[in-house]
Write a structure and sequence with these properties.
Helix content: 25-40%
Bound molecules: cytidine-5'-diphosphate, magnesium ion
Mean pLDDT: 78
EC number: 3.6.4.13
Radius of gyration: 29 Å
Largest sheet: 7 strands, parallel
Protein name: RNA helicase
Keywords: ATP-binding, Helicase, Hydrolase, Nucleotide-binding
GO molecular function, one term: RNA helicase activity
Strand order of the largest sheet: 5-6-4-7-8-3-9
Number of helices: 34
Strand content: 15-25%
Number of strands: 28
Family: Belongs to the DEAD box helicase family. DEAH subfamily.
């Protein structure tokens, strides 16, 4: 709010920015008097102060008005009061040395591309430059508005907002963040860090992004889909804002020099935007290749880390692995080897785990030991299949007892780690202790850990793949690109000369690593993007200025999905249903569930279900492999997961939830979580992730609000404990889900003519609409006790061994022609029984035989109107 800024605000003459004596103080309220001031509520006391100041500076305001808008806009400069330690660190950053050149370019051009090595200060400094140059002020160069910074990763949005607020000496009310379900933005917010998806949603409500004066698209080299789409949209918004007289500036930031897709793309920016590259003070990094490439890279990383720690001079260590599970595993192995006195949150958690183990030895069940809930609806995943597991205890044998005396602080870093735990990697380490950060790809460019001297690079990364036709997703651990490998190596030379140990040979680097990584948009389904773009009024998505366009097949597949859902008409136009669907911040299928959910008083359940399906990793991953269970299918042993069993006990007596299969389990979880008092204990018992569950609660609230906004008459309120649905409601819920998942139906493969052995093996085999089959019920699915003839599933996951159906729910054959007729083929009317005519409604009713989907499953005859 204005009064908070006034004490820092100075307006200086054009030429003599540095001559402090000539600085002319003008209070910001002056601008407010012109009716342009920032809005916001003040408390009464402050209101008085404002009035007082206004009278003092009124005359100066007139002077300012006379000098003309344009001139004044260039002249504003805001002074910040930075903490002392920050001044020192900033002075070292290459970006700070280039402030003048960068700001000149921003002021002279609507779009600026800024390239600079990771750690050169782009993310933390650029928003500050913009703020200091008055971009948030009504009399600033763009006529006021927020500075928005988009990040592809949530971790970065949250942690950068904290850091920048601290550096600027401002509060989180002023420098804030917003990720899908949570944020701390207020009416005082001047700099907002957010995920790229959040800004994309905002464009739907505010097509010209009027609330912003500058948008900074960070980490553009990562080429996340939302970043790509944002750039396409911004390229159209900028000329419109230019015309409106309140220009919008765009700064695209990249950690690599590979920006031709943005700069040399006449569809995107007709005149190539100026590209600045900041030379960073990078120290030489010696790259060491391994002579051979090991199969067990986690073990190899362990051995290399031990060796470095034992033999090499002080300097922090950074290890790159592919996923959370591997990270935790290596952390545990290293901690077991090297003692460290500093207690961390992680260790406390370890303590909890030990306690559980202890209890187990007393006869309790070990909750860690089993595979948990089917992880339905996850959009991203760091941990699926790991590499072959060997015993960590065996590794240790190769490190001598003497070496184990050397203290090392081992910290994990991955995207789902809670923010306060992420912050630990930035904290100073006690004298004589080596810090070792074991990280996933997040440490490659988004987060810079200070004082790293040694990098251990496994050369691997985990990527999710989708089959364009079947929609089957797989997680594959594969080689990073050469560009990524070089980024990783660069992390070692930030503050001193460093070393990078690549756990693969130079031949592998040359021959197996691609030069660059592929943009995400080329490797994932785009139905959500197409729906959002149509809702933005972009009729012909194929003509959109994508930095790299998705394949025509992917676009066509997306249109087919949306047409099947009724979101698009056959000529590709957005329907009313599609418009409603697009207003929910969830994938189109779930959007449809919400849009049709009110019909049977089922909305509270639908909302909870969609919330739970949209949040990834509800259940803690354990380090025990669940492979064995998977391969055997499930024998007669019944429920194998005790965490799941604990959850199922919650379901006991709630027969109505059980009708909903895995989805019923999810609903029970949501209700039980909101209801439970001792949540820590509850989550320890069930394996539910508190953070994910809080996200579900927030999303429930957000979706309830959206529904109320679209349909004020409903006046929905959240019933936290979510009482079980009535039987009729449960049936309707199944039907609602089916109506949205007509292309995700599977039919049980008949085992009638099989041998007894095959019968047992194929008990859980299905054929699904999108592939020839067979696919299988996941071993921990709640439907394995009684596999139904037909079911719907959320997604398919290829484990490498089998394809699994995840998030399943039984449906009745008779519902298919009624609820998803678009996937049915109806034949000629049958002779018997004869058609009937109802004169009141003028309808003929007759029986038709019907088949479903591409495999033409016979559904028998159905009476149709
Ligand atoms: O965006 P870019 O990679 O160019 O650099 P940055 O993220 O702005 O980081 C600049 C410097 O700030 C690095 O040396 C980081 O280590 C430091 N930093 C920090 O000390 N604490 C944070 N929470 C974030 C960054
Ligand atoms: Mg950055």
């Amino acid at each position: 709010s204005p009064h908070k800024v006034t004490s820092h605000l100075e307006v200086v003459g054009d030429e003599d920015e540095e001559e402090e004596e000539e600085v002319q103080m003008i209070e910001m309220e002056v601008e407010e008097a012109e009716g342009e001031g920032p809005e916001g509520e003040e408390e009464e006391v402050e209101e008085e102060k404002v009035k007082e100041e206004r009278t003092v500076t009124g005359e100066e305001a007139n002077v300012a008005v006379e000098t003309g808008v344009r001139e004044r806009r260039v002249a504003v400069f805001v002074q910040l009061k930075r903490p002392g330690d920050v001044q020192e660190v900033r002075a070292q950053l290459p970006v700070v040395a280039e402030e003048g050149r960068i700001m000149e370019s921003v002021s002279g051009s609507p779009v600026t591309v800024l390239c600079g090595e990771t750690g050169s200060g782009k993310t933390t400094q650029l928003p500050q430059f913009l703020y200091e140059h008055g971009y948030t002020l009504p009399n600033g160069p763009c006529g006021g508005g927020m500075i928005g910074v988009t990040e592809p990763r949530r971790v970065a949005a949250v942690s950068m907002s904290h850091r920048v607020a601290y550096e600027m000496g401002l509060s989180q009310r002023q420098v804030s963040y917003q990720i899908r379900y949570e944020g701390n933005a207020t009416e005082d917010t001047v700099i907002k860090f957010m995920t790229d998806g959040v800004l994309l949603r905002e464009i739907e409500q505010d097509l010209l992004l009027q609330r912003y004066s500058v948008v900074v698209v960070d980490e553009a080299h990562e080429r996340s889909v939302f970043t790509d789409i944002l750039l396409g949209l911004l390229s159209r918004i900028i000329p419109l804002r230019e015309k409106s007289g309140r220009p919008l500036k765009l700064v695209v930031m990249s950690a690599t020099l590979r920006v031709e897709d943005f700069t040399k793309n006449p569809l995107l920016f007709p005149s190539p935007p100026p590209t600045l590259s900041v030379e960073s003070r990078q120290f030489p990094v010696t790259v060491h290749f391994s002579r051979r490439t090991p199969t067990s890279y986690v073990r190899e990383a362990y051995l290399k880390t031990c060796k470095i720690h034992k033999r090499l001079p002080p300097g922090h260590l950074l290890v790159f692995l592919t996923g959370q599970r591997e990270v935790l595993r290596l952390c545990r192995a290293l901690r077991g080897t090297f003692p460290c006195t500093q207690s961390t949150g992680e260790e406390r958690e370890e303590g909890g785990r030990r306690e559980r183990r202890r209890r187990k030895s007393r006869g309790d069940v070990d909750l860690d030991k089993y595979p948990l809930l089917p992880e339905v609806g996850r959009t991203e995943c760091e941990d699926e299949e790991g590499e072959e597991e060997d015993k960590e205890t065996d590794w240790k044998a190769e490190v001598s007892a003497h070496d184990r005396q050397l203290p090392m602080l081992v910290l994990p870093l991955y995207s789902l780690l809670p923010p306060e735990r992420q912050a630990e990697v930035f904290r100073p380490v006690p004298e004589g202790v080596r810090l070792c950060v074991v990280a996933t790809n997040v440490a490659e460019t988004s987060i810079t850990i200070p004082h790293v001297k040694y990098v251990v690079d496994t050369g691997k990364v985990k990527r999710r793949y989708y089959d364009k036709v079947t929609g089957i997703s797989t997680f594959r651990v594969e080689w990073v690109s050469q560009a990524s490998a070089n980024q990783r190596a660069g992390r070692a030379g930030r503050t001193q000369p460093g070393h990078c140990y690549r756990l693969y040979s130079s031949a592998v680097f040359q021959n197996l690593l691609s030069q660059f990584s592929q943009p995400e948009i080329c490797s994932r389904p785009v139905d959500d993007l197409v729906l959002q773009m149509k809702a933005l009024g972009i009729e012909r998505v194929a003509h959109f200025p994508f930095p790299t366009p998705p394949s025509p097949e992917a676009l066509q597949a997306a249109e087919m999905v949306l047409e099947g859902l009724g979101a698009l008409s056959s000529d590709g136009r957005l329907t009313d249903l599609g418009r409603t669907m697009s207003r929910f911040p969830v994938s189109p299928r779930y959007g449809k569930m919400l849009a049709v959910g009110h019909q049977y008083n089922c909305l509270p359940y639908v909302i909870s279900l969609v919330a739970a399906l949209s949040v990834k990793e509800l259940v803690v991953q354990t380090d025990h492999s669940s492979r064995k269970g998977e391969e055997e299918g499930r024998g007669e042993g019944g429920v194998k997961s005790s965490g799941l069993a604990a959850l199922r006990r919650l379901c006991a007596g709630k027969e109505e939830f059980r009708l909903l299969g895995d989805l019923g389990l999810l609903l029970t979880v949501v209700g039980a979580w909101s209801h439970s008092r001792g949540r820590t204990e509850f989550s320890a018992k069930t394996g539910l992730q508190p953070r994910a569950m809080r996200e579900v609660s927030r999303l429930r609230q957000q979706l309830t609000n959206s529904v109320n906004m679209i349909c004020p008459d409903l006046n929905l309120v959240i019933d936290p404990s979510l009482a079980p649905p009535t039987e009729a409601q449960a049936r309707h819920l199944c039907q609602i889900v089916l109506a949205c998942l007509g292309d995700r139906v599977a039919r049980k493969i008949s085992t009638d003519n099989m041998s007894a052995e095959d019968k047992r093996k194929q008990r859980f085999s299905y054929q699904c609409v999108s592939c020839e089959g067979p696919v299988y019920l996941a071993p921990n699915s709640s439907l394995t006790s009684c596999p139904p003839d037909y079911l719907v599933y959320q997604d398919l996951l290829d484990s490498g061994h089998r394809i699994y159906l995840r998030g399943v729910m039984a449906v009745q054959e008779a519902w298919l022609p009624q609820l998803v007729p678009q996937f049915c083929k109806f034949s000629e009317p049958l002779e018997l029984p004869p058609p009937t005519f109802d004169p009141n409604t003028s309808t003929i009713r007759c029986h038709m035989s019907c088949t479903y989907g591409p495999h033409q499953w016979p559904l028998g005859s159905h009476e149709m109107a």
